[in-house]
Specification:
2 copies of one chain form a homodimer.
Chain A lengths: L5 E6 L13 E6 L2 E5 L5 H7 L7 E5 L5 H4 L2 H10 L6 E6 L2 H11 L8 E6 L6 E4 L3 E7 L7 E7 L5 E2 L1 H6 L7 H5 L4 E2 L5 E2 L5 E2 L6 E5 L6 H6 L5 E5 L10 H4 L4 H11 L3 E5 L9 H7 L6 E3 L5 E3 L1
Helix pairs in contact in A: 9-10
């Protein structure tokens, strides 16, 4: 099974929203799962403007408890109820988020029309927090002012691809196709063994998406996500403000690109820009000497990998 | 002292925000106070788009704890800190709001750069919650699904207006002008008493603004705000959905207009429309048979009274 990753950036600016710049939120479509990643104020409106179907979102991942990454969450949770959703919603985020949400539901005499589940993240090591037959999601411990995790979304290897002509030549019954795609050999009626590699092609290489925001430069990230298809890495500052990275727990565009190079990823998407800058192209200019295939994230932009 | 009320509607739609319709928030400029009333998600962005100076807002009034009236509050509080505000901010709202805000500040390891004060409202009777030399603010108990108050903003009577020609004729020293404006009589050097009404004109009639959202039809509101300059009254539904008013605790446009008539207000501004309706002019059409001077609130609209 081959598939594409599809990324929609709902917002990718740091700190307070301004008139036309949204705080962080994005949607990753991977193997037909629609994962919402971070949820700054205004996310529900950005979802509507980007025509993303609310009902397809079943999992929300919150990196850390700074307002620009989760102040839109209560609005999303409440609106899903107003829409009479019944499908469960699971929220993955740092300990404390559940308490914030449940207190508001209690005091506002609100309730959800659907099962609301929480997975509280507390580990400082990479931890698998979601897994099914198609995809795993692992935390990426980051280096920020407060406890923060990125998320590594990885496709599992797909089934082998059937060589339909070979199967027809050997007159193999269709009933065996499923077994063959899972790697099985076949014994013909005359006793001949046909090994699987004569009947199939290799599956597509599984794709992966690493989301890293917010973080200072941290080399362990590169080790963990080695060979990822795409890295989204925060680039809050240009070199002119590099001295602010340490105290704020953020990165420059050049540092994001250095992580991309060390991790040997396919593509780098930049985001989480400080709103002090007018010309986003400067981020590309400062990143490209370190990593060639760099893309500029921006509100409303979509990428397919 | 004569002054105008200036009202800016930041948002006036019910329930969940949609792509281009904001939940409730508005700014009242009265005697040079800038009061923020309700604070739905996206309020800080709406404030910026309407070019309202954050630093002029010192008091925020929250009617009730439904998300479309307060989910933008944490964003406003946090952004004021990012801007390094030092002036105190006071928030008036139902009991429970303080707990919600303080829990989020605690868990997010956030703090405010300025003193943050809360006035928790619990009374079911009209209660003065703010008063200074110029203005009083009194709660208007409303009838909604949860505990809800409107707010009645009233100018205090101004000083009497000096009849400067009369004062010059009597050769009264300027040192006495302040006393005269406060209503004092004057005794001339020859012992003649000049009563105040020979030296002054009546001050302008104090203006007032009654904010009533969200509420079902409630006649006691009309009694309390009798003669108000302006009434903002919710009109969630048209007659075609009047049957929903009781269960939801909302009003129709006609009911809003009936309250305006009974209260003998100067003007009625409608708002809090259900987003199911396309043509807002229908709200005016259904209100006008009951009250002539009705105005259509809408996001970004400004009114001067």
């Amino acid at each position: 099974m081959s598939s594409n990753l599809h990324l929609t950036i709902l917002g990718c600016y740091a700190a307070a929203p301004s008139s036309f710049k949204n705080p962080t939120s994005q949607v990753l479509d991977i193997r037909n799962h629609l994962f919402l990643i971070d949820c700054g104020e205004g996310t529900q409106v950005a979802l509507r403007r980007n025509k993303i179907k609310f009902s397809r979102i079943k999992h929300i991942f919150i990196s850390h408890l700074h307002g620009d990454h989760f102040f839109g969450l209560m609005g999303v949770i409440t609106t899903f109820s107003l829409l009479k959703r019944t499908a469960p919603l699971t929220i993955y985020g740092p300990k404390g988020l559940k308490e914030i949400i449940l207190l508001q539901l209690k005091i506002t005499q609100g309730f959800t029309s659907y099962p609301l589940r929480f997975v509280e993240i507390t580990s400082k090591e990479p931890t698998v927090i979601y897994e099914d037959n198609e995809v795993t999601v692992t935390t990426i411990p980051l280096k920020h002012r407060i406890y923060t995790n990125g998320f590594y979304f990885q496709e599992k290897p797909g089934e082998r691809k059937l060589d339909i002509n070979a199967c027809l030549n050997y007159e193999i019954d269709k009933a065996y196709y499923s077994k063959i795609k899972q790697g099985g050999d076949i014994t013909l009626d005359d006793g001949t063994l046909i090994p699987n590699d004569k009947l199939t092609f290799d599956p597509s290489k599984p794709k992966s998406y690493a989301y890293c925001s917010d973080t200072a430069y941290k080399e362990a990230v590169a080790t963990q996500i080695k060979g990822a298809t795409v890295l989204y890495h925060e680039a809050t500052f240009l070199e002119s403000h590099a001295h602010l990275c340490k105290s704020t727990g953020h990165s420059t565009a050049a540092q994001a690109a250095q992580i991309a190079t060390k991790a040997e990823v396919g593509s780098l998407v930049l985001g989480h820009y400080s709103i002090r800058y007018g010309d986003l192209n400067l981020f590309i200019e400062e990143a490209r000497p370190h990593f060639e295939n760099v893309l500029l994230g921006d509100d409303g932009k979509e990428f397919t990998f």
